[in-house]
Amino acid sequence: ITVSDLVAASYERIHAVDDQVKAFITLNEEAARAKASELDKQVDGASNPLFGIPLGVKDNMVTKGLRTTCASQILDNFNDPLYNATVVDKLEEENTVTIGKLNMDEFAMGSSNENSSYAATRNPWNTDYVPGGSSGGSAAAVAAREVFFSLGSDTGGSIRQPAAFCGVVGLKPTYGLVSRFGLVAFASSLDQIGPITKSVEDNAHLLQAIAGHDPMDSTSANIEVPDYSAALKQDVKGLRIAVPKEYLQEGVAPEVKEAVLQALKVYEDLGATWEEVSLPHSQYAVAAYYLLSSSEASANLARFDGVRYGVRSENATNMLDMFKLSRSEGFGDEVKRRIMLGTFALSSGYYDAYYKKAQKVRTLIKNDFEKVFEDYDVIVGPTTPTPAFKVGEKVDDPLTMYANDILTIPVNLAGVPGMSLPCGFSSDGLPIGLQIIGKHFDESTIYRTAYAFE
Ligand code: GLN
After folding, report:
1. pTM for this structure?
2. Which of 142, 176, 215, 290 could pair with 221 as two cysteines, CB 3.0-4.6 Å apart?
């Protein structure tokens, strides 16, 4: 099989199903086909598992000369970014082929993809349901076999939750493992780019290619990247699994709980042990997350002013109106809600009561994880309290939408890595995700644990 065949198959599939799935915002067809024919002239490629693989990139990572919108009207005309995100550069070096840019919630704010200003991506398993978000396009495109691999970003669950809803494997790496250079910032202290794939093995290959220190990102860790594929070959005999009781209490659907308990049974059979533990502060995680992430977003999104990037309002007659109108017309409702919340939380007089308090809660949550990891190798639980919900079901109720992230958000606040992998189906035939959480920079143990189950 040639790279041209692979790329052609990818576009054929996209042209057949993407009208329904709506995973893509922008396709890169001409350039991708040209690159494929170039790659077909090279003989060497057999030793590189990523050579010629069709890849989708979430539309909040900049791609040189390829439109990057963050699914926002304010970047609708951002057709010609000047550089690639570091992850994109790294994958170009591995000779993957960028098929297109994937749909998402606007600026990665959302859990259902319904906040995209273009179209709501649908769940390929049943198009009445959401694919999750904000990397809904990235998960749906892999699940619908439009691309082999995709990149997503995860600030409060946005890789793991859609991976769970779409029945694919998604990993949020340790904060600092993967460069954020060229990722349009939402909440810089939480954002991480990660791989979404069909299998655990593919996932390890993709992480291998994007991980590692980048001088262009001051929060990028200077560590030696381990060989993740090597970790797949070890078994889980003697592995100590912790299961937080907060992750199986009421609010978690019975069939989700059942699927997780079944998975734990599999681990027992494989020679691992599990015990119940507590992450006592996780009940405060959602509140702390929305304060901190919105505060950071209100600062990060100040750069979208109609001057430096993107769309400028045509209705303004003076400078101040130009800023105001460009932002009012360019941002969607959810983004405006977060900017207002964040601006309020950072205002003088409120800073101590909200932002500072949320930072303290964040530390307590981080300590909870550290304490558990003194005695256990991994933490296992569900990725989400329920399988995918229906399109439109939560769209008018931001608080229940936010609550959907209750099991993923603590991981971002603690900065540790977490994966979602499929572990069963609901009675409606929708996938259920198993979440595996590891110690800082211990993605290897997550891969080892996931591979043994898969
Ligand atoms: N759903 C969460 C939010 O809306 C998480 C988003 C994310 O991880 N990018 O903020």
Report:
1. 0.97
2. 176
